[in-house]
Design brief:
single chain; 251 residues; Rossmann fold; six-stranded parallel beta sheet; two-stranded antiparallel sheet
Amino acid sequence: MRRTPGGDRTGGARLRRAVARLRPRVPRTRRGRRRAVQGLMAACVLALAPATWLHAVSEARISTAEEVPARQVAVVFGAGLWDGKPSPYLANRLRTAATLYGDGKVEVVLVTGDNSREEYDEPDAMRTFLVGKGVPDDRIVSDFAGFDTWDSCVRAKKIFGVDRAVLVSQGFHIRRAIALCRAAGIDAYGVGVEDAHDITWYYGGTREVLAAGKAAFDALFEPDPHFLGPRERGVDDALAAASRRPGLRPR
């Protein structure tokens, strides 16, 4: 194809004009710049409001495993499987739950996670791990439809009848768990499990900033979880077993 004289210059000019149109326009007047700054500040405040709410709601309710108030039920949130076994982060949550049980802080452990696919079963993997750490099988209750934190909290309250609980998760997630479980009607305290501050930890912390917005939406509008269904007696039966054999716990 033959080039026309000056074609390159004309094409370059068109490209520069297109790029210029994509650039953000800075207001030329002082009043316009002031309004732009005010708008930016308002956007920042709105973006940070959900995270601020999470901190305010949960601040006085985060504790260590040694100091957390005793509750009948501990709730452990799923955190992924590696080759069918709990990921290192989930394993640390489960070790903490086993310690709470062994120290007499809780009587029953509710494990809540994802079993949306036949080949992926967080609750059963969590149960197997806890049994290996000395928690009796009849003191463990499985929620197979805990697809996210809000679902887990609502189902703990509405399906399993949990009114008061100790929540177990990593420090970057425990604030959201406490806030959402309290919004769901559970008197919740949380134990923030410590882990190495590796790339997973920092990813989790960054993700929480984004997840705070959804948490605020869930707490405000209280949507139903993906699955509800009839009331289940798993926690009731486990507590009954604990009352019949209160002395059977590891030390």
